[in-house]
Amino acid sequence: MYKLMVKRRNEHGDEYYDNYNVPADKASTVLEALLYIKENIDQTLSFRYSCRMEICGSCGMEINGRPRMACSTQLASLHSDIIKISPLPHYNVIKDLVVDFDPFFDKYKKVKPYIIRDDDGNYSAEIPQTPEQFNEFKEYAQCIKCGLCMAACPVVGTDENYLGPAPLTALFRYNIDNRDQGIMYRIDIANSDDGTSRCHFAGECTEACPKDVRPSFAIQKLRVQGLKYELKNIMGGKK
Ligand code: SF4
Ligand code: FES
């Protein structure tokens, strides 16, 4: 038997915990325990999920003090019969464990996370890419936009304008894609006051990432790329 303590809010916005006893085995996930509550104890409890297999990125929540995916966190891995669950920090709460992702995706859109071409895009054949070129950015392309890194980042928590680890990782991912020609449209965003210079390299984002994306590493590489780009401009070089 596990005791789940779930942080909620009343109609006045005051926080409190609801406690639920859930008969789950150790192999069960936190998401399965929450679904048990929803189906058998309390239908008013709200949380977000879809794929149940760490692909859709929608079930992030703080579980025993760390941002985690509910669908891939087994109860046994928490080494406790008491599981404390809260909504992801650094996001506004809509209800119970459901948070507002609009500001996250607004930042994401700002970094132009798509292939940009100088030409008209009217191709008779695909743009070739070797396995080596694909491997350059493959790690960063594993991002499922779950936002756990943003919840873990101490700078995101204190500076709402900071773009944050996931958007900056996406920015870098497209800058190093051999098919892309849009670095000049993104690098000023990376070098802006809300970009890489805000990162303190705490590394919490990489710790939290369920897909081993290593956003802190991407941000460091992006900072170097940004400096080189600025230097080239100062020296009058071309991209
Ligand atoms: S970098 Fe990792 S933690 Fe951040 S949004 Fe992508 S998958 Fe989630
Ligand atoms: S339900 Fe899709 S990532 Fe957890």
UniProtKB/TrEMBL annotation:
Fetch the Pfam families from UniProt.
Fer2_3 (PF13085), Fer4_10 (PF13237)
EC assignment: 1.3.5.1
Kindly list any coiled-coil regions of this protein: none
- Say yes or no: keyword Ion transport present: no
Q: List residues of the 2Fe-2S ferredoxin-type domain.
A: 2-89
Keywords per UniProt: 2Fe-2S, 3Fe-4S, 4Fe-4S, Iron, Iron-sulfur, Metal-binding, Oxidoreductase, Tricarboxylic acid cycle
Stored InterPro entries? 2Fe-2S_ferredoxin-like_sf, 2Fe-2S_ferredoxin-type, 4Fe4S_Fe-S-bd, 4Fe4S_Fe_S_CS, Beta-grasp_dom_sf, Helical_ferredxn, SDH/FRD_Iron-Sulfur, Succ_DH/fum_Rdtase_Fe-S
Give the source's domain of life in one word.
Answer: Archaea
List the pathway annotation.
Carbohydrate metabolism; tricarboxylic acid cycle
Ranges for the 4Fe-4S ferredoxin-type domain? 134-163
Similarity comment = Belongs to the succinate dehydrogenase/fumarate reductase iron-sulfur protein family.
Record-given protein name: succinate dehydrogenase
